[in-house]
Amino acid sequence: MLKLFGISGSPRIAATDWIIKEALRYAEENWNAETRYFSVRGKKLNFCLHCDHCIKKGSCIHDDGMKDVYSGLEWADSVLIGTPVYQGTLSGQAKVVLDRMRAFVASNPHGLSGKVGAAVADGGDRIGGQELAIRAITDFYLINEMVPVGGGSFGANLGASFWSKDKGADGVKSDKEGLKSLYKTLDRLAEVWVMMNKIGGEREGGRKER
Questions:
Q1: CATH code for the domain of 129
Q2: CB of 10 within 8 A of CB of 91?
Q3: What is the pLDDT, as a whole number, of residue 209?
């Protein structure tokens, strides 16, 4: 069974929160996935200090909300990270999550190897930095030996992209192209996971016909 960990990199309960929860719902209903969810909202997440405590001691010097991220990524075989667009790229909170994964990899250099990763970004403008935010997350996957996926040509090349029109959850719910890109990306993520596990044809965890 596909184990998908969804991370919302937004400090608000708005567009990104809704998108990640919708993605997990879709994966559960269409791919029989087991899912977990993490939001940066309300969490204490300290900046990475690059102090190398994790290199020397095998654990992060900070004791904060990242413990839930570490356990979620240890559990998962696939991950979807979502971020709102701030100043043309990913949110500061999302960047802290990515930076702090240094401690996870320091304790287990190949701990993320082979996990499948996808990204989604939403912004108040249709072209406001969504692709740059997605590429930052994709670079994180590449650096840490993960398998990054997008949704393929014609609508979701690099991943899922939403235009919220600054209307929060209501805005992304009404973005039909955004939803199309999300579902295409999730299908591709699951298909790659299936191929990597050499499971084909009819299967209990396979996509349901709709």
A1: 3.40.50.360
A2: yes
A3: 47
pLDDT in tens, 128-151: 999 999 999 999 999 999 999 999
Residue 191 has a pLDDT of 96
Does residue 209 lie within any of the structural domains? no
Please tell me the pTM assigned to this model.
0.93
Q: Which of 58, 66, 26 is nearest to 182 (CA)?
A: 26
Number of domain units in the chain: 1
Residue 206 lies in a domain: no
| Run of H or E residues at 162 | strand 160-163
How far is the C-alpha of 147 from the C-alpha of 71, rounded, in Å?
19
Cα separation, 209 vs 79, whole angstroms: 23
Domain with 190, as residue range(s), is 3-196
pLDDT for 89 beyond 50: yes
Rounded to the nearest 10°, the torsion over CA 87, 82, 52, 66 is 120
Distances (CA, A) of 31 to 25, 82, 204: 10, 20, 9
